[in-house]
Amino acid sequence: MDSSTTLILCAFSFLAGFVDAIIGGGGLIQTPAILFTLPQYPVPTLIASTKIPSLAGSLMGAFQYSRRVVVIGRFIAPMMAIAFAASWLGSLTLTRVPNSFMKPVALVILVAVFIYTLIKKEFGQVTQQYVSARQQRLRMWTMGACIGFYDGFFGPGTGSFLVLGFITLIGFDFLKASAHAKLVNAATNLASTLFFVNEGKILYAVAFPMALANLSGAFLGARLAILKGNQFIRVFFLLIITATIIRFGWDLIG
User: Fold this and answer.
1) What is the pLDDT of residues 76-122, one digit of tens each?
2) CA 192: distance to chain centroid?
3) Which of 38, 113, 160, 218 is the 20 to 30 Å CA partner of 172?
4) C-alpha–C-alpha distance, residues 22 and 221, integer Å
5) What's the rounded Cα separation, in Å, for the pair 214 and 208?
């Protein structure tokens, strides 16, 4: 593997980490880049090799947010554990059955999310205090199970789905939702990473340099999101949802 190829992948991984730390969706950048750059390798191996960079970025984003945003620790810790187990199960299921049927479902959901966010200007701008502690716990744990499985089984858009869930189901604003989403996403990425390490499918020669680049991008992205606040994150959210819709739509047409 020549150095120029590694540098190209690191550049895309940096951008992926930056975007993912703000609102999720870094996989839309990182995954196509490695698939296009290293076509001589099996697709499962390339997907597996993006898990370590994604994990590094998620951990950095989670650390940056947790220092500045209050996290509901008594609920988020069990949610992370549930998401971890669900992600592992999703990765295991991926090795057994095809996941192509997930794209049409995800596309419909994302189009609806885009329209709703565009119309509802106040969506995610303030924290809504209407969800009881019992309901928060139940909804967060259910969301951890569903989206955790989705991340292990399919993946793209996981961070954005987590942010959406925290806003619509729990009542968080964008900033608080992003902070909690990064913690859960770190758990799902860790599960997938451990699974694929155990399967021996990771190209460490590119995974580790990409991890450093992703971590650096996540550091800057999280700091910028915290500095700029909810309106900035909302714009990024719409951009990433649009990119995800285009990507899924192109895959279905193709």
Assistant:
1) 999 999 999 999 998 888 777 665 655 566 567 667 666 765 665 55
2) 12
3) 218
4) 6
5) 10
First and final C-alpha spacing in the chain: 30
Residue 141 has pLDDT above 90, yes or no: yes
Which range marks the domain in which residue 84 is found?
3-253
Question: And the tokens for 171?
Answer: 């009542």
Could you tell me which of 156, 200, 161, 154 has the C-alpha nearest to residue 30?
A: 156
CA 147/CA 87 separation, integer angstroms: 8
Tokens coding 100:
């192509």
Query: Taking a C-beta distance cutoff of 8 angstroms, is the pair 60, 194 a contact?
Result: no
125 neighbors 173 (Cβ within 8 angstroms)? yes
Q: Distance (Å, rounded) from C-alpha 15 to C-alpha 28?
A: 10
Question: Within a 13 Å sphere around the CA of 198, how many CA atoms are in the beta-carbon half?
Answer: 9
Q: What is the pLDDT of residues 9-40, one digit of tens each?
A: 999 999 889 988 887 778 777 877 887 888 88
Q: What is the pTM of this model?
A: 0.79
Number of domains making up the chain: 1
* 108-136: b (≥16 Cβ within 10 Å) or e: eebbebbeebeeeeebbbeeeeebeeeeb
Strand spans (E) along the chain: none
HSE-CB for 21 with a 13 A CA cutoff: 34
